Structures are given as structure tokens and as C-alpha cells.
Amino acid sequence: TVAEMHRSLRIVATRRVCTAPSTVDVPIEAARSTTAQALKMIGWGEREANLQAEIMTAAEIAGNNQGLVKMYQPALMAPTDTTGSPIIERETPTSAVVNGNGCPGMLAAAEAADLAAKKASPIAIVSSYNTGTSSGQLAFYTERIAKRGLVGIALANSPEFVAAAPGAKATFGTNPIAVGVPLGAAGVFSFDMATSAIALFGVLTSKAKGEPLPPNVAYGKD
């Protein structure tokens, strides 16, 4: 039905030997629950697995490349011996610092977003650091704030992945930025971008699908 289609993700898998793609419709809840189950199998607890799966599935629905491609190499998403839980390292009535203790960036960012929304009067600044993996789709956190009637802004740095085109050396991070603004009955205005021609997980998505990168988004040593 139309309603069922609106609750589904469309995943396109292309075989290199074929000219036409084959598509499989996966219910959104099935994608989320399967991802959560996979996260539990590699060592995450119920809460941590469910939240990460929710964030990745939300990105997939939005067509954001911070989605389920993160599970392309599950071992990279697994907790390690040094993985802890995020803690509030210091705070004031309008600010806070969240120490991720090596936890996934998604878990630390969700806690930071909730804390910023709780403190906002009219503005609060909360940062997180010391995380073990990517923070994922930043719009997830700004929309989380906007749904509480607040304007949310999220920024993130990254290792040096980006060359000054057509430079030969990685100098900048992808440094994404996102904004979420409540629009009342109209929902939420959401803006999310990387400050690069392509995000790292856009590269990994192409790799996972066996597709070439778009033109002029990457440079080799030559």
C-alpha cells in the first residue's frame, strides 16, 4: 500500500555483471531492528544498540550518507576494551562539556543535544569530545532540539581528509554543519552539509556499492 511504502526504505543493489539494478523494499522498522540486533551481536547493550540504530536509520530515510553504510565493516563499530560511557566533565547553567570516554560519537552527540536543549535559556553551548567513531548525521541532533521548540546548531570537526582542490595533500576536515529550526505545525526546517565536495561516508557508500566516485571529488597522488 501507499502507507506501507512511506514506511519503507528503498535499497538498490547493482551487480557489476548486470545492466539493470534490482531493488528490495525493506520496512523501516525492520531496517532499524535488524541494525540494532547486529550492534548487539558485536557487543553493544540494548540502549546503546537501539539509539545508534535509530540514528543510522534516520540518516538512511533522509538519503544522508551517514546511514546504514556504517555497518559495512561491523568490526569498526564494535566497542573495545577502552570504550566507556559518556560523562559530563564540567558544566554551568548554560554550558557543558561531555567526555565521551571513547564511546561512539552518536551516543555522545545525542547526550550533548539533549543537555543543550535542557539548558537553553535562551542559549546554551554543549560540546563533546573523546569519542571512538563518527557522530553520524548531524541533522538528527538539531532536529531533536528543534522538536522541543528550540533552534539547534551542530558543528563537528574531523581528521584531515580534504584537499584544497586540486591539491595533493589532505589539509582540512569534512567539518559538517547542521541547523534545525522549529516551524510549528509545519514541522522542522533542517539543513545539513559537509564542507567538502563529498563526505567520507559518501566515499564508503560508493565503495560498498561498487560504484565510481562522482567526478572531481577526489584526488590521487598524481
Secondary structure topology:
Elements (H helix, E strand, L loop, with lengths): L1 H5 L1 E6 L8 E6 H14 L4 H16 L25 E6 L2 E5 L5 H15 L5 E5 L8 H9 L5 E4 L6 E2 L6 E3 L4 E6 L5 E6 L6 H10 L13
Structural key phrases:
222 residues, alpha+beta
Structure commentary:
- The protein has 222 residues and is of the alpha+beta class.
- The chain contains six helices and ten strands; from the N terminus they run αββααββαβαβββββα.
- It has a three-stranded mixed β-sheet with strand order 3-4-5, with helices on one face. Strands 6-9-10 form a three-stranded antiparallel β-sheet, with helices on one face. Strands 1-2 form a two-stranded antiparallel ribbon.
- Strand 1 (8-13) and strand 2 (22-27) form a beta hairpin.
- It is globular, with a radius of gyration of 18 Å.
- Mean pLDDT is 88; it is low at 1-6 and 10-18.
Amount of helix: 25-40%
Distance between the termini: 52 Å
- The outline comes out as globular
Number of DSSP-assigned strands: 10
Summarize the structure.
The chain has 222 residues and is an alpha+beta fold. Helix content is 31%, strand content 22%.
